[in-house]
Amino acid sequence: MKTRIRQLRAQANLTQVQLGKAIGVAGKTISMWELGVSEPSNEQLIKLAMFFEVSLKYLKCQKDRLYEIVNLDAQIVEAFVINDFEKTLEIAKSLTGPDIANDTQVGDIVISCYESGTADNVWPGECHIWTESLDDLLTIKERDDGS
Prior knowledge:
This protein is of the alpha+beta class.
């Protein structure tokens, strides 16, 4: 996080004192954060995020995950889910069924995972981590749950 604060401050062309005044702390406090001696409180993190117009996850250098559910049979993207793998599996399973109205099989659904640490929630191709069929993911999950 210390690097992210320094990076955002530099991009905004602010001194430590200027940033401190903007969020209600001393310039020395900003220096301590950037050196990693101390960290901002939750309240201070919120002020920093609002000031720089970034998410708390971005400020904390945490990455978001985007799950894309694709129906290969219909050749369409069915849904996008952010940061909730269990919900992704639930939605993907709901797209399958044995009846005539919904003859999509588990193997017809694939899920791709993208990871982004950017502030603007852009998910370029280089953020792609993996793509697996729903069938394979459910098999892996069942095996892991049984362990």
